Structure prediction request, 393 residues.
Amino acid sequence: MRRISIFGATGSVGESTYDLILRAGGAEAFQTVALTGGRNTARLADMALALRAEVAVTAHDDCLPDLAARLAGSGIAVAAGPAAVAEAASRPADWVMSAIVGAAGLVPGMQALKTGATLALANKESLVTAGQLLLSTAARHGATILPVDSEHSAIFQALIGEDMSAVERIILTASGGALRDWPMERLASATVTEALAHPNWAMGPRITIDSASMFNKALEVIETREFFGVAPAQIEVIIHPESIVHSMVAFHDGGVIAHLGAPDMRHPIGFALNWPARAALPVARLDLARLGSLTFRAPDLRRWPALRLAGEVMAVRGLAGAAFNAAKEIALDRFIAGQLGFMAMAGVVEDTLARLSAETRLGNAASGLEDVLAMDHLARIRAAEAADNRAGG
Ligand code: NDP
Prediction:
């Protein structure tokens, strides 16, 4: 029986993964090693019982009593805290879904790779903060990383059987998020509720707001650079409001291979679950005649400064990705808390990168995870200061 674990099981990607596991036979077809969640202990306990998991872990110590009470007498082990999440990731499994949101997903993903597992990677922050470490760890331990972001799954699928030397460009599509068609002058006053109204995708709240600001696409551009090893100049972003073309690969002979499908994360998750085979998936089928047309346009970098910042981060590389992601997470926290304007998020990230490049060697390659975590920590402090300055100024 295939041994699986789901990190971030109670989230949007986690729920879709759980749905596919249940449809594929649940506890009769898979041996579930670990399921982890955050504050939603009720859901985590339900999932653990249904899949007869070996261990259920909450990221928060104060949630442990509730989780333990829900699973009392079930024979399922319980634990709490980041160290317990990492320990759960070091338990051998064949297939591991990495779907924790934010930099908190990095350590468990790395642990899973050290066991030689196949890591289905939704947590793009891992590649942005520690891309080279992640890939070298996978290579050293004979582990496999499969991208789960719909764009990167699309690119991965378009590249099957292709030689990377034949690739001219990778074209990432972007819906543009909830505020895509707003007049520029209104963006500064956009609220959390407005930024959460994504036109096509149902996702967790943080990535949905990041879609509106395009910080999500900025992370994906860096993820593309790290995972597929292409030069920054070979990566292009194009606005595609319908979210039907999930991304494209352009080859030197002028041909372009696009991956199309309904906007449903169960496709890329299911692809990673069944890879290298393909299995039937419960996603809506495309009716192109009914869709009629698909549209594309170039992104406006004044509207989405995050895209410009991604270019700067890739030019510096080294620890800049870790700094960028941490600063973005703090700016997003402040926006969600109502302490920072929508457009000021990019300002906070930019101020943080400028400050860090003056006081540290941002371009230095990480020699280990400690360097990445130290930069993540420092960038959070500097970003909080930058946010205070902007809020006070
Ligand atoms: P959600 O916010 O829906 O879920 C996040 C999961 O992580 C939940 O299980 C949550 O637990 C848990 N969690 C939150 N904070 C912590 C922490 N500090 N330590 C450990 N676990 C934590 O996120 P999404 O599912 O939307 O996104 C997950 C990842 O996948 C992100 O990296 C995102 O960028 C990526 N992704 C998501 C897509 C989507 O469609 N949603 C598409 C492509 C990529 P709880 O809810 O119980 O508190």
Remarks:
- The pocket of NDP is lined by residues 8-14, 37-40, 59, 85, 99-101, 104-105, 122-125, 149, 201, 203-204, 206-207, 265 (CB under 6 Å).
- The mean pLDDT is 97.
- Residues 369-392 form the longest helix (24 residues).
- The chain has 17 helices and eleven strands.
